Amino acid sequence: MKIEALVVGATGIAGRGVSQELLDTGARVYGLSRHRDGVVAGVEHVAADLLDSAGLTEAVNGIEPSHVYLTAWSRRATEEENIRVNAGIVRAVLEAVAPARSVKHVALVTGLKHYLGPFEAYVRGGIAPPTPLREEQPRLDLPNFYYSQEDELYAASKREGFTWSVHRPHTIIGKAIGNAMNMGSTLAACASICKELGRPFKFPGSAAQWNGLSDMTDARVLGKQLIWASTTDAAKNEAYNIVNGDIFRWSWLWPRIAEWFGVPWEGFEGAPVPLEGQMRNDGDVWKKMAVRYGLVEPDLSRVASPWHTDRHGSPDRGDDRHGAESQTWFPCLSKYGSGFPRSLRNPARGEGYSLGLKAWRWTAAAEPQTRQSRSRRLTGDGGRKDREDPLQRGPPAIR
Predict the structure, then answer these.
(1) What parts of the chain have a pLDDT lower than 50?
(2) To which H or E segment does residue 164 belong?
């Protein structure tokens, strides 16, 4: 099937991931975002503001996409605002492409909070859902913008006649600058700053998170599933969890990240040490590193999102908005204090889709992906050329 794709949110982690996978299949890809910077090479950029319905309709006029991939969202202060704005984005995009009458399938990327509720709810509540999480589990009795996005998708599908799929990854790891939730580049930037300053790379979470089990979703794995679900008849009109296929403990993975960057590390040592606190004054350091090493992005806030990695509510700043349970949840590393014993089940394996990626591989892959456009390594060692492709070798030994 020849795909003419419209990727909405083309400069984000998921959008970049599916854009590259689509290009690799020979698809024609339009990438919709406000700015061109960050769009994957080979993608035809469509400039539009998703909050401007009239401008959005004008921007897509003349495009006849067969497949639409919705990977964008806009973070707001409350869940009510998240619902209004993000459901509105889905509705506006689908109304904008409807006049072309070309759309055969729409894929929507949401995430793990489908099962947890919004940040505020699961940080305050502290009650883990039964695991492994399964797509047929009923919705929570809570406001959730993911539910509202799905409802807009279902309504448009019924009205316009296209098929749909919903994709629920765990924490997505990939390359994207200016992304609101980017744990991979946050940890890469933190480790690089630690190396620059000679300070230890400290694990920010709790003892239970340090020892608990978790999993991840590589943006490339998500991209492949998006294409599979949108082009396989048996897979359409379903929701799918998606993770890499393995599980790990941060007590195992943290030293490997540190080894890759060549920095000393500290695990859990009695209390959480939130990344927001660790990195609060690092902006100027990063700017100097950008000049010294020729980095592409000098603004640390566009590279790292520590609020997402340990969710703002850090005890070191006296913020108890989320109650005593908060203690820097490090929610995207392990959503609950006990960790997730295989948080997401991969149902697509039973539908003819099978793809796995070891968790350690993204730690090795994140840094060279970040520096692809530069000759120097992020931490300034001159761009070592003796490094193997991290996707082709085993995990580094811990010295």
Answers:
(1) 312-345, 349, 356-399
(2) strand 163-169
Catalytic residue, from 113, 202, 224, 335: name it.
113
183-197 and 359-370 helices, crossing angle to 10°: 70
Torsion, CA 308, CA 275, CA 288, CA 379, rounded to 10 = -90
Q: What is the CATH code for 4-172+216-242?
A: 3.40.50.720
Q: Cα angle vertex 331, ends 228, 50, to 5°?
A: 55
Catalytic residue among 30, 146, 293, 353: 146
- Our answer to whether residue 113 is catalytic in this structure is yes
* 246-257 pLDDT per residue, tens: 889 999 999 999
Comparing CA positions, the residue from 44, 47, 48, 12 lying closest to residue 28 is 44
**Burial per residue of 200-221, b for 16 or more beta-carbon CB atoms within 10 angstroms, e otherwise:** ebbbbbbeebbbbbbbbbbbbb
- Domain 179-215+247-341+357-370 maps to which CATH number in 3.30.70.20, 3.40.50.300, 3.40.50.720, 3.90.550.10? 3.40.50.720
- 293 a catalytic residue: no
On whether the CB atoms of residues 344 and 241 are closer than 8 A, the answer is yes
pLDDT tens digits, 61-117: 999 999 999 999 998 999 999 999 999 999 999 999 999 999 999 999 999 999 988
C-alpha–C-alpha distance, residues 205 and 269, integer Å? 10
d(Cα 74, Cα 302) in Å, to the nearest integer?
Answer: 15
